[in-house]
Amino acid sequence: MEKVKTDKREFIKYSTLGILGLVLGGGMVFSPYVLRAENRLRPPGAVDEKKFLALCIKCGQCLQVCPYHSIKLADFLSGHGVGTPYIDADERGCYACSAVPCVLACPSGALDHHTEKPEDIKMGIAVLEFPDTCLAISSTPVPKGYNEKMHKFTDSVVNIHELEEKLLDKFDQFEGKQCTLCADMCPIPNPLSAIAMVSDSGGGNRPEIYDGCIGCGVCQEVCPTTIASIVVKPRVTYEEYYLNKK
């Protein structure tokens, strides 16, 4: 009987070590892919990604004070930064609040407190990734029901802020009109410093990005095409993307 108990203990011991080894080994194998997955859109004021991951204490304070419910917390399937805040611009961009409350709420320095106003925000840069699908370029009116996605998102929110209600009212006014959503919904105080609709060689208009773009992701959120024609490149500057390509 004693031998059976001993064998059982040994089996559990080595089975546990074996499983632990597989987990650690798997982490070593897959870690490059996990790291690559961390190129996500962070809230305003986010410091360098590695420093951000080291400083963020995953308290969720930035999420709680965001009036637009723009900020989410990464889950286990989102990479190694579990619990860290990010913004999914396909669902809800950052609306660049004048007082930048998410930064004020951050207690650890992961969001730099020198980011005091919308113009200080540098999250990334907008890029017309798929011009062939852009409704403005093809002079296609904004289709009926384009705003269902935003309404569905807002309906899922428990406590809707009055700013979100005003946002919906503005968003609902574009149906059937020539598409200027990305430019007209830009939330920064001087949107023409970031984006404007300019004449396209094909006869329509196209969004043109300027150095005032803060990479908030609103243009990506409101784009009415099935896959957003305009997207934000996280942690890329205007100079890096546009000037270095010339």
Describe what is shown at a glance.
Helix content is about 35%, strand content about 10%. The protein is α+β, with helices and mostly antiparallel strands and about 250 residues long. It is globular and about 50 Å long.
How is this structure best described in words?
Residues 43-76, 83-116, 205-233 form the 4Fe-4S ferredoxin-type domain. It comes from Sulfurimonas crateris. Helix content is 35%, strand content 11%. By secondary structure, it is of the alpha+beta class. It has a domain at 121-243. It has a two-stranded antiparallel ribbon. The protein has a two-stranded antiparallel sheet with strand order 3-6. A hairpin with a 5-residue loop joins strand 4 (195-199) and strand 5. It is globular and about 50 Å long.
Q: Any key phrases for this structure?
A:
single chain; 246 residues; 4Fe4S_Fe-S-bd; two-stranded antiparallel ribbon; iron; iron-sulfur; 4 iron, 4 sulfur cluster binding; 4Fe4S_Fe_S_CS
Number of helices: 9
Indicate the mean pLDDT.
Answer: 87
From the helix content, strand content and strand pairing, which structural class follows?
alpha+beta
Helix content class: 25-40%
Shape: globular
Task: Name the beta content range.
Answer: 5-15%
Please mark out the parts with pLDDT under 50 across 5 or more consecutive residues, or reply none.
2-6, 11-37
Q: Please provide the count of β strands.
A: 6
Gap between N and C termini = 79 Å
Strand order of the largest sheet: 1-2
Radius of gyration: 23 Å
Largest sheet, in brief, is: 2 strands, antiparallel
Query: What series of H and E elements makes up the topology?
Result: HHHEEHEHHHEEHEH
